[in-house]
Write a structure and sequence with these properties.
With 432 residues, this protein is mainly alpha-helical. A hairpin with a 2-residue loop joins strand 2 and strand 3 (257-259). Helix 5 packs across helix 6 and helix 12 (276-285) packs across helix 15. The strands form 2 sheets. Strands 4-1-5 form a 3-stranded antiparallel β-sheet. Strands 2-3 form a two-stranded antiparallel sheet. The chain contains 18 helices and 5 strands. The chain is globular, with a radius of gyration of 24 Å. The two termini are 29 Å apart.
């Protein structure tokens, strides 16, 4: 990765893109540190410290800590992710949207993006209102007038739309997927806090302050570091793993020349859906917190306690959502029937299987097996750190596995994007 960035930096065009991405990230981090007016941010941070083991703490970590400080970009990319989930589900359910996606070409893609933007605006307004109600119920407002409510909700909503716009600017003018890079930046910004929490926890244990909110035996720190390193190695290994299905093309004579007779492979990634199932599952799992925000009386009720991140029910639901979204996303990414038809048209076949329906059935069987393994892998990566965080009482590490998975996935994706652009630059220079 470092070598790729170093080589990309030598290319003037890519250097400008990297500087542009860095500039956008600086703006993003500045927005995450500008508080919204009329809110008692000190009291809000204390409230989130007490609620760090439930879903609100999870949402705070995913926003890079800005959710607990009520900053301008506190909602972060959550409204956009929610909107993307809704549109993708509707694309499968509504034939008109499916036709727009498959047959609409560039115009159809832009139309779907426009619908996603408007949906993001609506969800940002809805979540901004829910966040305001949560703050108001806990008496964390410095001004409870209607004008203050309008300013707070409008700022949260505008912040969510602004984050979406920043992500689109990175995608269009920078390198890699903008939304993923912003999520990457938010997670990385929490690393110093995680280190600080471990230091404070170990310090409290050594001093004998067992009544502190955070107590961690010093011997557990190497265990946590080794565990994170093991997760990192496993994530990189699985992310790069793939099942290669051999394909043979029949020979055919056209005029005096013979074509075909070549052999190639169809690469099927073990984790074809990437980190998206976890992001989608976290978004759905955060619905109880959203409901509690609209119904403040539920904030400390059994309903919220059941959906704490360290409860059995939450982790079971979390695993089921990850498996479900893994299959859903794999189906969108890879269509066995379409691949089989394309092979048949091009004169290709998989050895041992007839072209057409038998090939599609074989590809479907392989896809289901690979997706099951990938889904179990994602579920283990996502759930084990939750359990570890509850045992060690280190809430900052509660989504450590998910964070590592997102960071590694985004880093590899960005690396591939840089390598592709460098390769394209070489081709352009050769053809020129």
């Amino acid at each position: 990765m470092i070598e790729t960035i170093r080589n990309a930096w030598k290319v003037p065009e890519l250097r400008r893109k990297l500087i542009y991405v860095a500039f956008i990230l600086v703006i993003f981090r500045l927005g995450n540190n500008i508080p919204v007016p009329f809110i008692d941010t000190t009291g809000l941070e204390s409230y989130f410290t007490a609620a760090s083991n439930n879903i609100l703490g999870l949402m705070n970590v995913m926003s890079g800590g800005s959710y607990s400080r009520a900053t301008m970009l506190a909602l972060s990319i959550q409204p956009y992710i929610n909107a993307s989930i809704i549109i993708q589900l509707l694309t499968v359910a509504i034939p008109a949207l499916e036709r727009m996606q498959r047959e609409g070409g560039e115009a159809g893609r832009k139309r779907l993006e426009q619908i996603t933007r408007y949906t993001t605006l609506g969800l940002g307004l809805l979540q901004g209102f829910g966040y305001y109600m949560l703050i108001r119920y806990n008496s964390l407002l410095e001004d409870e007038s209607i004008w203050a409510a309008i300013v707070i909700i409008a700022t949260f909503t505008a912040g969510s739309v602004f984050v979406m716009w920043l992500g689109e600017q990175i995608t269009e003018n920078g390198v890699g997927n903008g939304i993923s890079i912003l999520l990457f930046a938010g997670i990385i910004s929490r690393v110093p806090n995680a280190v600080y929490y471990m230091y404070v926890g170990a310090k409290n244990w050594i001093s004998g302050d067992t009544d502190a909110d955070l107590v961690l035996h010093p011997a557990f720190i190497p265990v946590i570091i080794i565990g994170v390193a093991a997760i990192l190695i496993a994530v990189v290994f699985i992310t790069l793993s793939e099942r290669r299905i051999p394909v043979q093309y029949a020979k055919r004579v056209v005029g005096r020349k013979m074509y075909g007779g070549q052999s190639t492979t169809i690469p099927m990634k073990v984790n074809m859906s990437g980190v998206m199932p976890i992001i989608f599952a976290q978004t759905i799992a955060s619905l109880p917190a959203t409901i509690a925000a609209f119904v403040p009386s539920l904030a400390n009720s059994w309903f919220m306690q059941v959906f704490d991140t360290d409860t059995v029910l939450y982790n079971v639901i979390y695993v089921l959502l990850i498996v479900g979204f893994a299959y859903f996303y794999a189906t969108i990414q890879f269509n066995p029937v379409e691949v089989a038809n394309n092979l048949k048209k091009q004169g290709g076949f998989i050895p041992g299987f007839r072209a057409g329906r038998p090939t599609a059935e074989f590809l479907s069987k392989v896809l289901n097996r690979i997706t099951l393994f990938g889904a179990i892998y994602l579920a283990v990566i996502a759930v084990i750190p939750n359990i570890t965080g509850a045992i060690f009482n280190v809430s900052a590490l509660a989504i450590g596995g998910t964070s590592v998975l997102i960071v590694v996935s985004v880093a590899l994706e960005t690396q591939r994007a840089l390598e592709a652009q460098m390769m394209m630059k070489q081709y352009k220079g050769f053809l020129g």
